[in-house]
Design brief:
By secondary structure, the protein is an all-alpha fold. It has one domain. Helix 4 runs antiparallel to helix 5. The protein starts with a helix and ends with a helix.
Length: about 110
């Protein structure tokens, strides 16, 4: 179970990071809507990549996975704050909400293990 949730969470961290690094038009629109300069918004990919790598590393050394997932949870709470500030609807917030749910599931499973 932990391996499956780890892979899902790693993908949930890496996909938005790739979109930011590659300059995906939807990511650029989000940066504009949130009022964040593109280069600063793009730098969010760094902690996303770190979280994804940490979760994968957590398969070998458990504490690093917990730290990475906790960091991702904080990052996602920040994302939800900016979504609310931009008055986004539930559909626009859904990727962050789903990623947060996956992160919480990972933490719950990893802590029990």
């Amino acid at each position: 179970m932990l391996i499956t949730v780890s892979v899902i969470l790693a993908v949930a961290c890496l996909l938005p990071a790739a979109g930011k690094l590659l300059g995906n038009p939807r990511m650029r629109q989000s940066a504009t809507r949130f009022g964040i300069p593109w280069r600063k918004y793009q730098s969010i990919a760094i902690p996303e990549l770190a979280a994804g790598a940490s979760v994968v590393g957590g398969l070998w050394w458990h504490p690093i996975g917990l730290v990475g997932a906790a960091g991702m949870a904080l990052l996602l709470l920040g994302a939800l704050f900016y979504h609310r500030k931009a008055k986004d609807n539930a559909k626009e917030m859904s990727p962050a909400l789903v990623a947060l749910a996956i992160t919480i599931a990972y933490l719950a499973i990893a802590i029990v293990k």
